[in-house]
């Protein structure tokens, strides 16, 4: 796995472990709810991941973008579809989104370069 | 047409007219680009409107939410689908989104109450 | 009860009812979690309401501010304490917070003017 | 004076009075500092008001926008210049700024319609 | 002192020095006001630091979060109390706060691992 | 050229190339529009870059700040003028802007240290 993909997932997992190791019920239930949000429902899981991605872009959170780029990639979102999601994020959120778009494309490039 | 739907569209149209009456090329091109963003492409127009809606929710802009609720409604988004979009907006954006969700549901109720 | 306090609470309650009338499990669980967040714990409920207020101020959501001003008022936060919370919100969030501070003080004035 | 200009200034003045009536030193010093920020310096006051306006646009605060539109108008900013400030705000901040642009133009129209 | 704590404080101090080396009165007064905001008053200093922490979380600024985690830690905030502040930040600000929570907990872990 | 200036520009150029390599018309037109926004018009290019800088500061995007600091520096903005732009950004945006101000000054220091 590429360096940036591996590092992202390793840190994310390690620190989620640290967070859940402290016994705070609200935090634990929030993490649980977050997972449930993206499950298949009236909308397919793929659509929900796309919603999560564009929301992360306009709020300009690199780690959230990386996470949803990865989930979308696994759900079969194509590069053309990714760029249409990016175009909505860019037009709604403005040029302030551009640096995050650069890092999103770098991450997507890394995901696409991985052996299947 | 219900009061809040009519008033929203009337004011929007009137002031867009005022904005475009001033001859600023960047502003005009931005408005044009904004329209093109939501056209059918690799993703269907309906999916793009849903992306526009969730982006508007997490950025907490009532007028943008109203506009995309209306566009989604016309594109055939069902109430169950609307609430799944809302659920992503709520979990990504937090409880700060709730007051905007109230006004979104009020607007959706008004749209659904209109004779077809 | 003063007009702005009454109208705020009436609309809030009505639309929360409309939101919960649609059977979306994630939305319902989020509302439930939101309520649990402010319950007595390692920190007293009053402290948590103060945290909710300052978070609402820097995120500049008038309805969230009104809600937490009301909750803080009921929890016994004094005017001097309110203004220290406001001062943190103002310095962290900047002058962009000022218009929300005006409406927060208007709401607080209305709450304090009510017969006990 | 037009209705929206008069109402804006009256409410602003009344509530600023209420805020400063409570003796909180940090809040008072912040208000004072805010005033000093826009005074003539290495940059002319007009340039600083333009900076204040574009900052208010991308942060999407209607009252802050109105205030700086008014200050810019008094400092002699022309309609063509206003629209170039708006174009920067729009491109940096994205389409989420559009509803605020509508209200900014409505306010500017009201200011320009006033007898000199 | 751990690496991340030491590096954070060293860079912060160095660059604050560079900022204050330029003779801008508004910037200097802002820094001064910022310090005064968190002093003991109607609310204890510890409460104010907690307010600063939750405000920093929902605005998603890692350095501000680190600073207030450190100040809260010195003021005696316990891990259980920290997680209740985090829970308010998470529920108000949404899942977009999660990556900042990870880094906050990493910093808190580093502070707690230091010899007293 | 200093390390941080060189690395910033190299990464920016490389990833802009990757973004434009994918044939998405909306994204391409947005990049084009972004460039046009800062061209000489009713306002001088220098003024527009200053507007771009303060907008980037209050939206707290380090890369956008770096880009506009560089453009302003090339347009002849002096250190005294930079700090007045920073002062507006700080007062409008609040102490949450401070960490970005630190990195802005670090970048400005690097630019000023370069041989002309």
What do these coordinates show?
With 116 residues, the first copy, chain A, is mainly alpha-helical. Helix content of chain A is 78%, strand content 0%. Chain A is built from six helices and no strands. Chain A has helices at residues 3-21, 25-37, 45-58, 62-74, 79-93, 98-113. Chain A is globular, with a radius of gyration of 15 Å. Chain A starts with a helix and ends with a helix. The model of chain A has no long low-confidence stretch (mean pLDDT 97). Chains in contact: A-B, A-C, A-D, A-E, A-F, B-C, B-D, B-E, B-F, C-D, C-E, C-F, D-E, D-F, E-F. The interface between A and B is medium-sized, with 31 and 31 residues.
List the helices and strands and how they pair.
6 copies of one chain form a homohexamer.
Chain A: H1 3-21, H2 25-37, H3 45-58, H4 62-74, H5 79-93, H6 98-113
Helix pairs in contact in A: 3-4, 3-5, 4-6
The count of DSSP E runs of length 2 or more, i.e. the number of strands of chain A, is 0
Oligomer: homohexamer
Helix content of chain A: over 70%
Of all chain pairs, the largest interface belongs to:
A-B, 31 and 31 residues
Quick recap:
Six copies of one chain form a homohexamer. Chain A is mainly alpha-helical.
Question: What attributes does this structure have?
Answer:
mainly alpha; 116 residues; homohexamer
